[in-house]
Request: fold
Amino acid sequence: MLLKHMIQLNKFTTKSMFLYLMGMLLVVSSCDKTPSNTPTTALPNDSLAHGIFICNEGNFQWGNASLSFYNTSTGTIQEDVFKSVNKRGVGDVLQSICIVDDKAFLVVNNSQKIEIIDSKTIESKGVITGFNSPRYFLSLGSNKAYVSDLYEKAVWIVNPAAQSITGKIAINSWTEEMINYGTKVFVCGRTSGFVYVINTSTNLLEDSIAIGYGAQNIVLDAENKIWVLTVGKDALAAQLHKINPNTNALEKSWSLPDGALPNKLICNSTKSKLYFINKDVFELEIHSTSLPTTALVQANGRTFYGLGFNPWQNEILISDAKDYIQKSEVYRYDTLGQLKGSFKTGMNTTYFNWK
Reply:
């Protein structure tokens, strides 16, 4: 929701029958048959054993956020599964989802809550409230998690089992994505020049790493190195950084071209490659010595907004938010950048998580 927060189908003559049939053939042949969009119905208990949850933000203050599920075994997309099962909407602005064993935690930003669901049946298992504007949920065990927040300038400490907030860790920034490494959690400070390091044993802030301005996305690669994507500000360029989490030292720092507006940073299933959006989608090997200058997938007028990875078919999933008030379209690309198909989802598809 960041981009919109800051901006927003008698009788025929022989001839007419022929033309009608030809038209129908053209329509059928032009349809993308895989995956198909299925009607919104209640889900059997085993239908979500293999696939990808998709968060659709909706529009700020419209209350039209939704959760979709892409079944990679059957090639079908099921829309608005939360509402189908629980007979109510998920809320206003579905920011992200974190899957932990048999549960999934849906972070609903403008509704100031986290919905807890069964990850197979989608049945509601409770709600955690009391946040200001939650962004991401990071599990640290059955009884502990951290939640970042847009307005709180803190990271919340949560007990998922008790479904309650137990405390918070003050940070002088809006907080975004987080990564756990050993007894450390690295937190993106979106409105500062730092990545913050929290000691999970004490819940104390123990370090801050200077990274330019606007840390937003963070991932851990196959060699246990942390990568951070920043958005920049004014004369400070957007950047991509590589951090050694053992020493908290920067190992690489690259500036993106002038005018860059990066959004999203993910890994492939082996964590050997990174993908990020900067209008187009770019790929970076973790051993690269420079940033890519040629896009893997060009936007060509589309509004690339969300980015995910399908580990079973080895596909890159890219959402097109269009004009932010139509349903999004998710494009499926192989790792060579060749289009494999697409499907519709909800409004403003932003986040993917596979199970």
